[in-house]
Design brief:
170 residues, mainly alpha, three-stranded antiparallel beta sheet
């Protein structure tokens, strides 16, 4: 049986803050990015509000707001600890796959709206042409995304992460 590696909490903290900063630059709310990165870095992929508060040195109210956002965008879920009144915040299995699949649904909606907009503006107008091209881009992206996700499933099955390891977040 393998001996678990000793975690270097300072290195974990640096990773959490670096990845959270990158998520924030990409448009995620800052506190939500920090909470998400901390959950991602936890061995169980789940933590209580108190654990998140302590790890990130933030208030329970900040955790609550961040978790509310992350729940709303389906990146985490709330589970009751068995035999307790405390909630645990849990990353979804196959988080990235689910996130990109939901993006595909958004792209479908945007493409439909853009096509209607291009028709309304007239395909001969500069705005109509620009919007039609944007709709075509989203249609292209959807096709590519579907193929990419299927290739990921095949590739994921080939990954050897060692005994007892899971690839939940990907």
């Amino acid at each position: 049986m393998a001996v678990p590696a000793v975690r270097n909490e300072e290195a974990v903290s640096r990773f959490v803050e670096r990845f959270a900063a990158q998520l924030t630059e990409a448009g995620m709310q800052r506190m939500a990015a920090r909470v998400f990165a901390q959950l991602l870095a936890s061995d169980e992929g789940a933590m209580t509000s108190a654990e998140l508060s302590e790890a990130l040195q933030i208030s329970p109210a900040a955790v609550s707001g961040a978790v509310s956002y992350l729940t709303q965008v389906n990146m985490v879920s709330r589970e009751r600890e068995p035999g307790s009144r405390r909630d645990r915040y849990v990353l979804h299995n196959e988080l990235w796959y689910e996130t990109f699949t939901r993006r595909d649904q958004v792209l479908t909606l945007w493409e439909k709206t853009l096509r209607e907009g291009a028709t309304s503006l007239g395909s001969d107008s500069p705005a109509g042409t620009r919007i039609a091209e944007t709709a075509a881009f989203f249609e292209f992206m959807q096709g590519e995304l579907l193929g990419l996700m299927e290739r990921w499933r095949v590739h994921k099955a080939t990954l050897d992460l060692g005994p007892g390891r899971r690839l939940d977040a990907g």
